[in-house]
Amino acid sequence: MNTTEKKNNKPFLILASESARRRYLLKQAGINFSVIPSNFDENSIPVSAPGNYVTILAESKAKYISDKYPDSWVIGADTVVVINGKILGKPSSRDDARIMLKDLSGQTHEVITGYCICCKAKERSFSESIITKVLFKDLSEDEIEWYIHTKEPFDKAGGYAIQGLGTFLVKSISGSYTNVVGLPVCEVIEFLIKERIIGFDSIKRINNY
Known about the structure:
- The chain is an alpha/beta fold.
- 30% of the residues lie in helices and 23% in strands.
- It has 6 helices and 7 strands, in the order E-H-E-H-E-E-H-E-E-H-E-H-H.
- Strands 1, 2, 3, 4, 5, 6 and 7 form a 7-stranded mixed sheet that branches.
- Strand 5 and strand 6 (124-136) form a beta hairpin.
- The two termini are 21 Å apart.
């Protein structure tokens, strides 16, 4: 079944996120999907161990949309940056971003993305968290000041975008690159294919390959 088909005028596959980065990753992978951001209140979930925390958030976001579209498959996700056991969210100001980048400078941190794929009508739900280790270069004050004035850090967990101007901050990574961007694409597609949610014939051919 091609994922562009709809049942009862409802989308077959939904990304429950307004993240442009997650949309980009799925589109690059040739997946057809609709975007319906979840309005789930993240503040209602108490902070816990990072892997567990992002998984619960991803499940909550996915199930919020799944309740509204029970026949659809829904993908929910949440990403955090963790340094020395401390969870870094999205900086709220330049001062906040500056502190985060100083904490990350010259250190190895973890980027943890929890994701959930579910379909209420089929009573099927799968979730897990994926960890990628990221090593930052030693950042000078000038580099930090330049970067926070680009405005790129302010809607990114940890205050940087590995796929954007922030690529110069990263010395090396161990694990999934797309996980750092916001979605572990390999694991997501592996599940979608295993569950026959998509097939190779329903993935768009990109660049005529």
